[in-house]
Amino acid sequence: xxxxxxxxRRRLERFRSNGRGWWSLWLFCALFALTLGGxxxxxxxxxxxxxxxxxxxxxFKRYTEQxxxxxxxxxxDYRSDYVRQLITxxxxxxxxxxxxxxxxxxxxxxxxxxxxxxxxxxxxGTDHQPP
Length: 131
Prior knowledge:
Layout: H1 6-17, H2 19-35, E1 48-51, E2 54-56, H3 81-89, E3 93-95
Antiparallel strand pairs: 1-2, 1-3
């Protein structure tokens, strides 16, 4: 492992001596690490699908409707009744994130006009207005 040059070492020590800057860097790194899991908090695709005794992870990999007994070779809309019925018929279930909407997913069941503040159905205010 390469060691730091004397100039770089002095600069690093000077930065560490600045308490606000040092702790702000660590806070920024922690918040950045939290955002990497954002897809697991708010997403319109399920985190896990069980279908015919096999597990699928649509958040990480694309699956086609045909893989769940459908007709189309495209990625399914997991919130549609048709896809839900296909998966249920295959003795399956779906596990959705706490906020079942992506950043561009319209919520057609809004109780207030969009855009609206966060609510029980849209925790983060992800209430994209339908086109």
